[in-house]
Amino acid sequence: MLDGKKIVVGITGCSMAIHALDVIAKLKKLHADVYVVMTENSTNFVTPLMVQRSVDHPIQIKAFDLPKSWEKGHRSLSQDTDLLLIAPASADILGKAANGIADDLLSTTIMSMRGPKIIAMHINNKMYNSPSVQRNVKTLIGDGFTFVDNGDKEHISRFPSVDQIIDTILRVLNAKD
């Protein structure tokens, strides 16, 4: 279903980061070519080694690390990429993306990516309902980002299921083709 599709998965620092492994496994099962960018904070929730074992390419964390195989950092990750998925997305990365802040590899990749961008967030409900996060969400929707609907109207900011994420990816890619 995703044969030949290059998908970059961005993992941010929150408690659901471990579930990115399930998303990656499902993408690979559907024959997607998966690349991963982790924020430094995400390494507190899921180890780079665990993530590396689930993909066929070196994972990237810092913008200026020497590469394990030569690629041009955020430019290569954002070029010829069919889709960028941020799962889980923290309030921090929403703020960076909505306000044009590119101070780490993931936020730089978000800024340089021209294809579809999907966000599967996991944010504390009180934090999510703060005016600044609400502004950021509205800005990102206006900028063309797609948010995965978790189906929970009471806790809209909880991490969606793997199936909900995959269904959103398929819908967005089919609309693009």
TrEMBL record:
One of its GO terms (molecular function) is phosphopantothenoylcysteine decarboxylase activity. InterPro entries: Flavin_trans-like (IPR036551), Flavoprotein (IPR003382). Residues 5-172 form the Flavoprotein domain. One of its GO terms (cellular component) is phosphopantothenoylcysteine decarboxylase complex. It comes from the Bacteria. Pfam families: Flavoprotein. SUPFAM superfamilies: Homo-oligomeric flavin-containing Cys decarboxylases, HFCD. GO terms for biological process: coenzyme A biosynthetic process. This is Coenzyme A biosynthesis bifunctional protein CoaBC. It comes from Clostridium luticellarii.
